[in-house]
Amino acid sequence: xxxxxxxxxxxxxxxxxxxxxxxxxxxxxxxxxxxxxxxxxxxxxxxxxxxxxxxxxxxxxxxxxxxxxxxxxxxxxxxxxxxxxxxxxxxxxxxxxxxxxxxxxxxxxxxxxxxxxxxxxxxxxxxxxxxxxxxxxxxxxx
Length: 142
Prior knowledge:
Layout: E1 3-5, H1 7-15, H2 23-37, E2 41-44, H3 45-52, H4 58-68, E3 73-74, H5 78-93, H6 100-111, E4 115-117, H7 122-129
Parallel strand pairs: 1-2, 1-4, 2-3
Helix pairs in contact: 1-2, 1-3, 5-6
């Protein structure tokens, strides 16, 4: 099954030095590498934008942009935006106030049958009320 990789995982893998990572974060990066090498890692435009945002140096921005260029975007279609609005409504009715970008990520994943790999705890709450599958890093003992 393909996996939509969320911004925090891309950032750990492509923007952080391995010496700065905790054991759990190293496992998450190892899982990212496995998903990429297996051809199961997926990206969407809004995640690409988030990963590239905040880069201070032009050289670093271009280097990261080139690395991400290897991944085609899953486009967010009108139906995904409509699904995201519905997801927002469902979350709010259950007392959860999601971010607009988060529900769009959820909608794209749900619409394309993808699980989401993230470290963002908000997605745990979304998964309680939305039809989402979250991908977990398999421990280093595999």
